Structure formats: C-alpha cells, structure tokens
Amino acid sequence: MKDAVDAQLRDQQAGFRKDRSCTDQIATLRIIIEQSVVWNSSLYINSINYEKVFDSVDRRTLWKLFRHYGVPEKIVNIIRNSYDGLQCKVVHGGQLTDAFQVRTGVRQGCLLSPFLFLLVVDWIMRTLTSEGKHGIQWTAQKQIDDLNFADDLDILSHSHEQMQIKTASVAAVSASVGLNIDKAKTKVYKYNTENSNPITLDGETLENVESFTNLGSIIDEQGGSDADVKARIGKARVAFLQVKNIWNSKQLSTSIKVRIFNTNVKTVLLYGAETWRTTTTTIKKVQVFINSCLHKILNFHWPDTISNSLLWERTNQLPAEEEIRKRRWKWRGHTLRKSSNCITRQALTWNPEGERKRGRPKNTLRRIIEAYMKMMNNNCKELERIAQDRVGWRMLLLKTSDLCKNELVNTQLQLKEMIEREESARCLIRELNTERIATLEMHLEEAQTRIRNHENLRKELKQQKAEMTAQESIIAGLKAERRNWSEELAKQENPWFQMFECIFPSTLTCTFLHYYNKYYWHDFLMLGSALAQDRGRLEAKIEAQELEIASLKKSLENENDSVKIKSKVIDDQTETILTLKKVSFSKI
C-alpha cells in the first residue's frame, strides 16, 4: 500500500520517503537561492509552519483522502477502526487521570502516522498548485511551486502578488483539513524584489528575514553557510560537553572514545556539510574544533603538543576538508543515480531567467563541484555514467582522495618553502638591523659627545661673560670714584687745582696739591709733565679695554647664537636616531 500511494505523491515532498533525505532538500533550496543571486533573479520564499500539526488533522477528511488516493476500502476500514474510540490518559502529579476520548489527529509514535500525514499535505499542495502558474520556472515545460519535508513547507514564487495569493490559499486549504498556520514561526525571505510591501495572513504581517532555518540548517543571505557552520560548531560543542565524563574516563579505551566522538559529536558538527559553500576560513574553523576535541580525548594539555598529522593518525581521522569533500561526493553520487525527474538532480543544472552581474561570479556549491570535476578531468555526462556503478563511483572517490592528498602534500611543501624563505629573510633583516643599530648607537654616542662639548663651551662662555661683567663693574666704580673726587676738589678755591683739574684726573690733582705744598715750583712743573704723560697712557689703555670689551660682547653673542643653532640640530639628530632605533627593534 505504501509503495502504491508513494508513487502518486508529488516529487516536491521528501519527508518519510525512500531515497530522499534532509540533505537533498537543503541542497535544493540552497542552489535555488545561490543561482537566483548569480543570475540576479527575483525570489520569494515563504517558510510555513503549522500549529500542533499531528494532533490537528481531521480524521473524516483523512479517510476520504485514503479513498481518493486509491487505497482499498478494506484497508481504510481497518485503519479507521484502529482510531475509533481512541482514548488517552495523562500522568499528573504522579497519578493517571481519567481516560478521555481523542477525535482528531494521528497517533504519536505510530509508524503509520507519518504516511497518513503525507497524504494530507500532498492533497493541500496539489489543490493549491493545480494550475501551476505562480511558481518559479524550473524546466521548459513546468514550474515548481514549493519544497516540502513532511509538515515543513517552503513556498516559492517570483513576485509579491503571487506569493500573497499562494499564502492565503495554503491557509484556506489547510483550515479545511483542520490545520492552522503558526504566524509567529512563519518567515518570508526575499531577494532582488522591487515591492517592499509585506506578506500578510488574516490581517497579520509575516516577518521578513535575511536568514532562516530549513530542516535544522541555517540558510543566510544569498545562500551562504557561514551562520550554519557557526551554529553547527556550537551544537557540536554542547554535544561534546554532555558526555564529558566519557572523555575523562580511564576505563574506556581511546578507540571507543573516538567511536563515540564520531557518532555523537561529528555527526552533529557535519550535518548538512555536503551543501556548505566552503571557504578556507570555514574549513579552518571546523578543523580547529575537531582538533581541540581530539586533544581532550587523548588527554593532551598545554604545554604538551602533538602534530596534526600524528593526532589524526592516532585517532583514525581525516582532515576536515577531506571529510567534507568525501561526504559531498558521496551525496552527489546518490543524486546522480536518481531518476531524471528528481528535483534534487534537476537542481544541479538549473538556472533561473535573468542576467549575470558583471565581474567574477560568486563562489557557490555548484562552482565548488565543478572545480572538483575539472581537477579529475571529468565532465557531467561521464560522472552520470560512472555514478550508476557504485563500485566505480567508490574508485573515483579514492582517486579524488589521492589527488587531494597529493595536492595537500604539494601545498604543505610550498608552505614549508615559504616558511624557510621567510625565516631566512628574517635572519637577514636581523643582521642588517643589528649593523644599523650599532651604527646608530655610534652616531648617537658621537652626538652626545658633541653635546657635552657644546655644554662645556657654554659654561666657559658664561664664565668669560661673568668676568667681563666684573671688569665692567670695576671700571664703572673707578669712573664714579674719579667723578666724586673731582667734585670735591672743585669746591676748593686753589687756582692751581682748577688749572690742573682741566688737565689731569682727580687722583693726579690730589698728588699735585700734595707736592705743591711740600716742594718747589720747579719740581712741580716736572711732576706736571710726567703726570700729563701718565694721563695720556691711562686714557689710551682705558679706551683699548673698552674696545676689547665691546668686541668680546659681540663675539659672545655670535657664539651664543651659533651654540643655540648647533644644539637644536643635535637635538633633532638625537630624536631621529632614537626613532630609527625603535623602528628597527619593532621590525625585529
């Protein structure tokens, strides 16, 4: 019965069906978004969620749908009789309540319940898309309106008007079979749309989002997977910490711990990795998390170290990039073995209507797969032929693995050579910087010596200036004393004094008066002639000293200016040398 009914279900439904998986649905949706971005095509996606879906299905409608899909009446009656008079009890406060009858929904945990629910969802979407005019163009002959996985519905459209009509139609048809849309959990994704009006349902606005979760995998703006990788690492870390006692156990062997890690942690980490748009940064994040977990499993703690290659060898692990590549090719082989009408297989070659943007195309899941194909020198037709033979496909995977290993080895050798070149360059830079620093230190020492010499010169000039100032003060005192004596002697009435006062200085006049009173006039005249000669010599000497003092002042001022200029130049040179020294040390 299940096989007969399954053949009638729409290809868009992937839940609880043979040869279909969550990965298929996630990959198809990612490719639709990525190709719409590449070809600059408008896209609407409405991710619909129902309220209490398995408990709300109307059973009378369900029995009618059985007959509609050709299930024999005898089998319909058997299933209906198993539901008639269905009663439940609830444990409350440690005690069972009285039994009450359940008239709607399907039994939770029953193996038949998912199959029964698929009939309801298939009829809803078949009724909604019977005209097939409001979806996205999938092939030359048909459009695709939605992607379904059990009760998770993703409605697709190119325009706001079409999406609004389809959303209202889904709500109306679902209500006729007892299902209600959860408006809070329903999200609308838009790309390259001109209409900014929101999608509404029963007067309520549905939330517009730039990323949404589809079957546990986060699809962010433009189909990227960075947010999903981050979420996967977080969930895997929680799963790893939940069994922390196992990693710390000394009774369990390393092989058992690694098996538990592969089944409980690694499966959570790499869920949906086949559809990731991987980059070097993405691979590095995943690899760092795996390595940290393996270090804890092997009880390696800082400062103990172990190389990555030895770590992977002891735990029988592949590098993260190789693991993801292996999973991706395994999924692609399953997809290529499916029917040509399979939506997931058609998505591998689907392109929307539109024009590509100028410049280099963005990296997508399809471009990553095409890069692997070029690396193996295979085209799509040849891969489809090889995929039909599982043994041949496995051999191709081994070949791909060997090529990737060789590429990895070559990359490691190139990195090693680059590291060696960088190390030699650093050594050369250190030597050059050492020589340069020694030269700079020598120049700095010379500059400091010159500064000390100029400081000593400044002190000598200051001392000379002080001596000159003292001499000037002495000369000024002598002049003042001469003036005082001249004024006192001028008051006297001695005519000889007045005569000699205009000829000789005051000291000589005093000497004249002394001799005038003591000696004769002849002697006095001889003394006057000698004193006149002495006065001439003294005045010439004083004038020469004044000229020498003036020249010393001028030379001292010039020397001060020169010292200031030289000091400023030396300060600038010192500052430059210190700056170069700091830069050289920072480069080292």
UniProtKB/TrEMBL annotation:
UniProt-listed PROSITE patterns? RT_POL
What is the protein name stated in its UniProt record? Uncharacterized protein
